Amino acid sequence: MYKFKLERFEGPLDLLLQLIEHNELTITDVSLASVTEQYLEYLDKNSDLRPEELADFLVVAARLLLLKSRVLLPQLFIEDEEAEAGVDLTSQLVLYRLYVAAGMKLYKQYRSPLTCFARERAPRSTVISFSPPPSLAVDHLGNIFAVIIAELESFVRPAPELISRTISLQERIRAMRTLISSAHQLDFRQILADAKTRVEVIVSFLALLELVKQRHVLVTQDKDTDIILITHYEESYVTQE
Amino acid sequence: MSLKNSIEAILFVASRPLTIKQLAGILETEETEVSDAVDALLSEYNVRQGGVQILRHGKELQFVTAAECGAVVQTFLKAETSGELTRPALETLSIIAYRGPIMKSDLEKIRGVNCSLILRNLMMRGLVIAEEDKRRLVTYYAVSSDFVRHLGLTSIQDLPEYISLHNPEVVERLLAEDNEQQPANEAAEHVT
Amino acid sequence: MSLKNSIEAILFVASRPLTIKQLAGILETEETEVSDAVDALLSEYNVRQGGVQILRHGKELQFVTAAECGAVVQTFLKAETSGELTRPALETLSIIAYRGPIMKSDLEKIRGVNCSLILRNLMMRGLVIAEEDKRRLVTYYAVSSDFVRHLGLTSIQDLPEYISLHNPEVVERLLAEDNEQQPANEAAEHVT
Fold this sequence. Notes:
With 241 residues, chain A is mainly alpha-helical. Chain A has helices at residues 12-22, 29-34, 36-45, 51-72, 79-85, 89-111, 138-156, 160-182, 188-193, 198-213, 235-240; strands spanning 185-187, 217-221, 228-232. The longest helix of chain A is centred in the middle third of the chain and has 23 residues, at 89-111. The chains are: A mainly alpha (241), B alpha+beta (192).
């Protein structure tokens, strides 16, 4: 398989777009599904992504996995769920591409000598005459600066919530993969047990579907108990085909 | 002394963008009257197509030189060429230019990434401005008059393909057409 | 691109009167041609009788506001440099007071928006002064001694809470953070 050259991407959509273009595909659900693996591979190899960055990449990873499973197992999805989960990644990417292309033209126009110049005020007309604001009191300045500092606090400090959420999401995708490839047999409920959010449930489920697709695991459901069991796919099964 | 002439004179000496509200304040006149006079002034300049034009961006008005004279004026002023823009900056500016004024959340929906830092960066460079809608407690982002000027435009609506890239409904239709050309694909239901 | 428009654009941005000879030099054109174009331009402005006119004084040409608008222009210029400060201007002034002397880039990092116009206005009002560090080719901004005196202080350090507000940790961190990323300003933008 051709190794996609790993660069720094501006964001998940940029990465997706470049994967699509690199594979000479048009933007469709099917083509997006087909580059899912390459996308995940990029995430795996770039563990140095900052938490803020990673969160955005992971959200799209989850949407990609969902989209892929919809392509593979359309019978599992009804219209409502698609809309709810916001999986319309294809439309978003088409829209995004429109603005990326427009941006390229914008840049040419921005750098071209066709510029409108504003009039700079004549230096000699700017006679400096001291005119302080009439009602400014001395402690007013400190109060204003204190407000600015307070606002900076929220901007400069990283949001701990975001970081923990990102880590848990990333860990879940990774954990699912290793867990299933190492364990002999697993109860799917175990995996879902400590999923804290709906996104985590979705991600877990999607990671599972992905592994089924890649023939890493076999999923069976007990008719009476409804328990979903995950078994490692034996070599023997593969050769039977 | 006509109101139109007064507005013209003030815009000339201001050498920075002024809003109709500011003009009305200085001239102690109703905003609607100022607005009418501004419209008349703009259409005069539009018809004339001279070396000086009036840029109108959002609420702001500013006298600028015509884009066609850009090279000559640049040489005369020994002005530097417009600065570099990185890809994320360009991407963000393009969306804001075509769809602005736009909320941060809508911008993020299109870009698929958190845009707080890039917005701050673009605002520091004076390329983007934030406007607060105080009633609705929402902040909208738009490109600055300076950026419009650097594009050699007197109105952001003069951008190529402005209508199709600004109007979501038309964009949606374009997307639908785009997808029709790819039969294997399930049509995009809606544009986010 | 017409010669007449180019002349108009250059006269407009020039902050000083220009002669036909100078214009011919800038535009690399024969003086007779420039002279003809100037005549055409002047008659256009004469016919129009707008708020802006071109004054011909001896050999010199210059854009001026119409005499009838003189009073209004004076009012505007005076209003611009007197009265209360806007909130953004007050913010800028307070940062310069407590953090100064400060570079424009640091000031903008703290405020998160471009401060060029505000700085110009504060300087015109004599509240802020620019000091150039010629060795490092950087300009620092500080409040003027007039302003310090106006506040009733003998030194800016006498401002209330000066010690704690002069270098709050969060500001230090913000500026340090950005400086780390300085070699590639893109780094900050890559995050988004």
